[in-house]
Every structure is written in C-alpha cells, then in structure tokens.
C-alpha cells in the first residue's frame, strides 16, 4: 500500500497551488500599468482620476511620483527594458526625452482623442501632448498676508525677511522666479527678459535675506507655507495650491500684476514600455473631456480638450499665461543650475 | 578544522565586499579620471581650482566635525550613565537609545523640521524657560541642522563607548587610587585610555555618516546648503556630469578615510601615553 508522508503532501499541495495559481498572478500583474509623474500630484490623481480610468479599462495604475528630471533619469537607466509605460512630465524634459529616443510617438488610431486637443497641446506631431494647463503665480499664507499679493516685488519686500520659499532651479517651477527676477531687474517683458540670465542672477542674489529655504521637495515646502512658517512661495501652480485651499488650508494663489506663467503638463508613451495597449487606453483617457473635466474641477487647471467644459465658478487668471522658450531653457539649464547653486548657497 | 578550512569561511564575505564595495569604488575612481574624450585629470583640476568646490568641501567637513564633537560631548558621559545604571533603569535607557533607530532617517529628519519651527516644541521650551523672549529662527539654520543631525547620530556614538565601558574592571580605578592617583588623574590616565577603542569606533561611525549625510541636510536646510553629497546627487541626476560627481565622491571618500585614520592613530597615542 502506498503511504504519504506529511512532507510529501505539503510539497504536492505547494506545487498544485503554484501550477494553478501562478497564471492568475501573472494575469493580475499584466493589468498593472506603471505611470511616472510628479510627487505633488499623487494625491488628487489617486483619489479622483485613476479610479475612473481603472474602472473604464480594468487596469491597475501603479503611480511612481517624483520629479520630472528624476523620471527622465529613470527612463534613461531603464531604456533597454523600461519599467514605466506612461510618464507625465514637463515640456522641457519631454524635449530631452524625445531627443534621446526614449518616447514613442502617439498614434491617432490608438489614441483617437488626440484629434480633440487644441493644436498647441500637441508637440512634434504627437511625440507628447499637454493634458492640462495649470497656471503659475505666488502661493501665500492667507493669515499672514490677508490682503493678498499684487506684485512679485513682495518676494523682495523687507517685511518678508526669512519668510520666502523658492523652488530650486532643479525643479521646472524654479524657472519662473528667474524670469521674474530678470523682468524686475531690466524692466523688459517676460518674453525678452527670459534671455537675460545675468540680470536674473543679479536680482536673485538680493533675495537671499528674505529666503527661508529653497526646496526640491514641494510637499514639505507646502507644509511650511500652510503652517505660517513661510508667508510666500514663489512659482506655485493652481493644481497644487488651489487644491490645498479648497481642502481648507490657509493658502491661496495670487496672480501678480506682472503676469502669470503656464506650467506645461505633458503626457507621453515610453518607447518599448510594457503593456502598450493599456498605455494607449490610459493616454486616450487623459486626453478625454471626461478626465480633463475632473482635472479642471479637482485641480483647477485649464483643459486642453476642446470639448471639455469648465466647472461653474472656475476662476481664469487675467491675461495669457506666459510660456518660455523651452529650447533656450534646455540649452542653458545645466549652466544655470551650477550658477544657481553658487549664487543662492 | 584546519586553518585552511577556517579561511574558506571568509570567502563569501570577501566576494560580497569585493563586488559591493571594492568594485564600485574602483569604477568611481575610473569615472573621475575620464571625460567624453578619454583619460584626464581635468575633473580634479576643475574641482580643486574652483572656490565654490572648496566652500562645499569646507562646509561638509565642518558639518561632520561639529556633529562628531557634539556627539562625543553628549555621548561620552551618557555612555557612562548607561553603563552604571542598573536593572529597569538600564533597560529603559537602552530602549530610549535603540528605539529611535527603528525609525527611518527621513521620518526623524522631517520630525525635526516640525520641532524646530517658530511655534515648535524647541522654541516653546526656550521661551517657557525664560532663555528667549521671542521665537528664535532654528529651522533652516546650521544650528537647527546640528541639533537634528546630532540627535539622529547620537546612538552610534553612545553604543560603542557603552560596550567598552561595560568591560572595564571597576577595580582598576580603585587600584589607581591606592597608588596615589586622584579621581581626575585616575579617570584621565586609566579610564579614558581604556575607552578609546569605543571612542574610535563611535567617531568612525558618526563622522562617516555625517560627512556623507544627504537626507538630513536636504530636509533640514534645503537646497541652499550644498555639501559633497548633494553635489554628487546634482551632478549625476541633473547635470549629467558623472565626472564631476565621481570627483566629489572620491574627495568625500579620501576625507573620510583621512579623518578616520587620524582618529585611530590619535587613539593609539592616547592609549600608549604612560
């Protein structure tokens, strides 16, 4: 008579579970879509946007939140075998990624909603697209600045000594303060002042007494603004500050008289990334009116889909948000970061 | 077991160290000696010829030296208190020292950014004790950074010294006293030399960790406080300049080894002093 040992039975049971369960595990993994993006957007994306797409497409979005430049570095490192399928990054970083052959052009047949976008939201014939347009101004603490902020000069005002936070030039939003500094130093409009780095750094050096800190991690800095430790935070966008305001935080976003900026929010498909079909579904959803209306309502950004409606009470800042010459930015950014470190340290 | 047999037991550790430590260090050194065109010393010339690089290096050294000094000044007597405590008290002290080690450095550093605020616990204590009339600015200052980093690294100074003190025979000080040594003389000539191995171990740990600290200065000081570690990160991640980052890495390593080596030599001299 054949006898069964306990160890033998356990081994057989384990093998059975492995044989029958493994395909299931593989299937579950195959519906995962790894998406890279900014750390600051993780909250509202996970709460309001990803669940809708997950319901529509049956995928599970795995969001990897960090900075655009770090995402670029990840794309470079994983070029042979990409881990991410879709990345949300700023336009200047998209330009670099495209030039290095890291992106796959979006095909209108796979992402038909691309036809509904405003023409300026489509870059290099579909290398990447803008899925939203947040506007940029000065974030401020309402308790400390009850009258708001009417000019960028407030960053330099003696009353704000040790109370100003700047984004690092390593972050894309750090660029806006540099352009503002050049504008205030020279009196030239943003379109001309953006090319005068010497004037910008001359003016920025005079801002040092007012600095509380320079951040590379936006959520930590936002926390300081909300607690009142800082009163002003330059280069902030509607998709962060106004969400916090709506959530009850004592902060607001000012549109200074000198003008506001356009934060370029791009989305792209990673070349040879996993789950190409799911990536197309995700990209198409981000270009749809439905998702863009959610983004407009929850993160106070302007949609790029021509069919998307603005929610009631949506405040559009006066004037056209300024978009800089990204080619010039990319050409000089390394040198600017080196100079920034030396001047601002 | 034969001597050869015992020697083989070290092979896995040697292979691991070779692959994980020696090889990357060799690659780092090679990277610092080449640019896009070939082999060159330009990376070192540029680094040593730049006033900014010297500023960053000096700042990094200053942070490491001050952190180590603060940890010795607080940690040395604390290690004695810990070793002399008995029963529940000793268990409590050890738990107080070890439990924070289970927390991530990021959590602890972020905690300090809250504690050091104008309305944080530190400023409230200072005002309540009458030491200050108004909130002091501590956050994003070097003082705040030193408070935070010394707190985080203190256990690494206390524990090695504590483990050495526990092994010192208490009768040695009695013997010194019978030979005419006063308490101070007995302490400086008998106890201090015997604790030197623990001090050297503590200094090595704290200095090495503080000279290479990245997360704590970044969270407690922000982007304005550039050290060799932040220079390495910026060079590789943002500037795409691996040679600059590698040179900064080699400089960091050399400084670390020099100071640790010097502390070992100094400790030997103290022990050898009659």
From TrEMBL, chain A:
Gene Ontology molecular-function annotations: thiamine binding; thiamine pyrophosphate binding
Residue stretches spanning the membrane: none
Presence of keyword Signal: yes
Keyword annotations from UniProtKB, A to Z: Signal
SUPFAM superfamilies: Periplasmic binding protein-like II
Gene Ontology biological process terms in this record: thiamine transport
Domain of life: Bacteria
Pfam families xref list: SBP_bac_8
Gene3D superfamilies xrefs: Periplasmic binding protein-like II
CC per GO annotation: outer membrane-bounded periplasmic space
Alphabetized PANTHER family for the sequence: ABC TRANSPORTER SUBSTRATE-BINDING PROTEIN (PTHR30006:SF2), THIAMINE-BINDING PERIPLASMIC PROTEIN-RELATED (PTHR30006)
Name of this protein: ABC transporter substrate-binding protein
Organism the protein comes from: Neoroseomonas lacus
From TrEMBL, chain B:
InterPro entries found in the cross-reference section: MetI-like (IPR000515), MetI-like_sf (IPR035906)
Main location: membrane
GO cellular component: plasma membrane
PROSITE patterns: ABC_TM1
Keywords of the record: Cell membrane, Membrane, Transmembrane, Transmembrane helix, Transport
GO biological process: transmembrane transport
Compartments, record wording: Cell membrane
Membrane topology: Multi-pass membrane protein
Identification of the protein by name: Polyamine ABC transporter permease
UniProt organism field: Neoroseomonas lacus
């Amino acid at each position: 008579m054949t006898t069964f040992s306990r160890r033998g039975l356990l081994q057989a049971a384990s093998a059975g579970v492995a044989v029958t369960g493994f395909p299931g595990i593989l299937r579950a993994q195959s519906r995962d879509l790894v998406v890279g993006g900014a750390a600051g957007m993780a909250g509202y994306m996970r709460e309001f946007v990803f669940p809708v797409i997950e319901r529509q497409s049956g995928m599970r979005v795995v969001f990897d939140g960090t900075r655009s430049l770090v995402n670029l570095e990840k794309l470079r490192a994983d070029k042979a075998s990409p881990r991410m399928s879709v990345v949300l990054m700023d336009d200047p970083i998209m330009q670099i990624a495209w030039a290095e052959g890291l992106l796959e052009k979006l095909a209108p047949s796979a992402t038909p909603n691309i036809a509904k976008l405003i023409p300026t939201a489509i870059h290099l014939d579909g290398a990447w697209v803008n899925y939203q347009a947040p506007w940029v101004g000065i974030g401020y603490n309402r308790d400390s600045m009850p009258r708001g902020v009417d000019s960028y000069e407030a960053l330099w005002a003696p009353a704000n000594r040790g109370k100003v936070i700047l984004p690092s030039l390593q972050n894309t939003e750090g660029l806006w303060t540099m352009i503002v500094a050049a504008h205030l130093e020279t009196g030239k409009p943003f379109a001309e002042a953006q090319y005068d780095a010497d004037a910008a750094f001359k003016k920025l050096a005079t801002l040092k007494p007012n600095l509380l800190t320079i951040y590379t991690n936006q959520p930590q800095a936002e926390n300081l603004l909300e607690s009142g430790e800082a009163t002003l935070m330059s280069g902030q966008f509607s998709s962060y500050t106004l969400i916090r305001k709506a959530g009850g935080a004592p902060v607001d976003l000012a549109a200074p008289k000198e003008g506001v900026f356009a934060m370029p929010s791009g989305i792209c498909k990673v070349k040879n990334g996993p789950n190409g079909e799911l990536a197309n579904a995700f990209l198409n959803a981000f270009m749809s009116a439905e998702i863009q209306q959610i983004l407009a309502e929850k993160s106070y950004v302007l949609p790029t889909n021509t069919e998307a409606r603005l929610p009631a009470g949506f405040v559009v800042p006066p004037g056209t948000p300024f978009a800089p010459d990204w080619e010039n930015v990319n050409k000089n950014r390394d040198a600017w970061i080196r100079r920034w470190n030396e001047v601002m340290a | 077991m034969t001597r050869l047999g015992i020697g083989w037991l070290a092979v896995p550790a040697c292979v691991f160290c070779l692959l994980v430590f020696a090889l990357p260090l060799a690659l780092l050194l090679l990277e610092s000696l080449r640019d896009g065109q070939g082999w060159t010393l330009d990376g070192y010339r540029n680094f040593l010829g730049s006033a900014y690089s010297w500023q960053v290096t000096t700042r990094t050294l200053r942070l490491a030296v001050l952190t180590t000094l603060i940890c010795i000044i607080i940690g040395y007597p604390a290690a004695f208190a810990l070793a002399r405590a008995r029963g529940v008290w000793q268990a409590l002290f050890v738990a107080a020292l070890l439990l924070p080690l289970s927390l991530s450095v990021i959590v602890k550093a972020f905690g300090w950014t809250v504690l050091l605020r104008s309305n944080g616990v530190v400023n409230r204590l200072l005002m309540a004790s009458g030491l200050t009339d108004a909130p002091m600015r501590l956050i994003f200052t070097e003082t705040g950074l030193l408070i935070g980093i010394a707190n985080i690294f203190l256990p690494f100074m206390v524990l090695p010294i504590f483990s050495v003190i526990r092994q010192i025979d208490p009768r040695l000080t009695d013997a010194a006293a019978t030979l005419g040594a006063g308490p101070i003389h007995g302490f400086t000539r008998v106890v201090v030399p015997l604790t030197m191995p623990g001090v050297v171990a503590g200094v090595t740990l704290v200095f090495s960790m503080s000279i290479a600290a990245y997360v704590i200065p970044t969270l407690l000081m922000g982007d304005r406080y550039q050290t060799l570690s932040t220079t390495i990160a910026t060079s590789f991640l943002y500037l795409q300049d691996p040679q600059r980052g590698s040179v900064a890495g080699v400089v960091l390593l050399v400084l670390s080894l020099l100071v640790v080596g010097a502390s070992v030599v100094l400790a030997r001299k103290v022990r050898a002093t009659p």
